[in-house]
Design brief:
α3 (41-57) links the parallel β1 (30-36) and β2 (61-68). The chain has helices at residues 2-12, 15-20, 41-57, 74-83, 98-104, 111-115, 127-130, 155-160, 166-171, 177-191, 210-213, 233-247, 316-326, 329-335, 349-355, 361-369, 384-395, 405-420; strands at 30-36, 61-68, 90-94, 134-135, 138-139, 142-148, 150-154, 194-198, 266-271, 286-290, 301-309, 376-377. With 422 residues, the chain is of the alpha/beta class. α15 packs across α16. It has 18 helices and twelve strands. This is ABC transporter substrate-binding protein. Keywords: Signal.
Amino acid sequence: MKHGRLLIAAAAAAPLVLAACGGGGDDGPVTLRMTTWSASEDHLAMLNEIADAYIADHPDVEAIEFDPLPFEGYTSTLTTQIAGDNAPDLAWILENSAPDFVSSGALVPLSETLSGTDGYEYDDLIPAATELWRQDDELYAYPFSTSPFGVFVNNDLLAAAGQPTAAELIASGEWTWERVVEAGAAVHATTGTDGLVIRDFDYSGWDNLSTLWTGWGAQAWSADGADCGFDDPEMTEALTFMHDAVFEQEAMPGPGTTADFFAGEAAMTVTQISRAGLLAEAEFGWDLVPLPAGPAGEYSVIGQGGLGVLTVAPHPEEAADFLAYMTNPENSVKLAQYFPPPRESQLTAEVLGQANPLLTPEQLQAVVIDRIDSGVVKPSHTGQAQLDQAVRAALDPLWTADADVAGVLGELCTAIDPLLAQ
């Protein structure tokens, strides 16, 4: 998948030439296209509502089309469109692709447009939330979703296994990974359902495991991206803990097994608040709590999505103006229905509660508001597509009962060291 990175660079190499072929030379109103990885009817309805209001006041834009691409392979599809002279005007960008997009020149600088828009309140953007999307003090994408991971808990399954609720464990200072696995194993042994699921991991989305290993102080690679961290003692300890939870304690489903927490098939799941809507008709008592503490103490992991304008967009100026409108304070509140905003003034239980009626102010405060500033963003690196494939393949031998965890992780670093050095 190394070609994904090269496609971005190639597309960025002649931005002015390609852009000149688009809206800048059109005589009439233009149509903007924006890619997303969500085909949710609710998400698209919200986006279309914002777009319709914009079009009503901007006669130079006659339509705004939202183009959902499958999440699996999203970045590869997007970069193929860019290289194939079929680039969208705007695109959602995954946090793990941010270094490639930001460093390659594939994105239009946004700082001047956003700060110069009346009523935008550019200084309201939280520096920690925008850090991944900046280079040399220039903002290249707006982090429309800055969402800490938490744990949804099925209190009924815990009770059936004679286990305390997560709230009770928090109150007693026992909300730790060790205690979570103990409770998950008890649920599985007693009820036959699964204990804990790290949602979207499925033994392939390895970067979601950062929601666990960060509790040990582990990291995939050093802060400068140069050194592999998978063979560090902290990572070995963290993934040994998980391996035991899967194969010895049976607290987590093994490879090839799926369990949907929201359908009542697991006692706990690690995911983000955007999934809360799946509990609207839940027939079990549930809670949402922060990630459990690990040996390194309490921590937070954040998943982000950025919204950027491509330099090879057919209509980059109109697209940047729409981005400024779509992410202004008023519309940011609308986006907050599903995506925690990067605006300090809007990270309140009142604002988030209006957008997330199933969650209590206490849940939003503990899981989202109190965790954003200190959160660690999921792993990202230049050349992420190739790294992702290499890490996934190197981790495959880990998911057997008799795996040599330290040996597998050592081989993993051998496999990715040349990629980190590029």
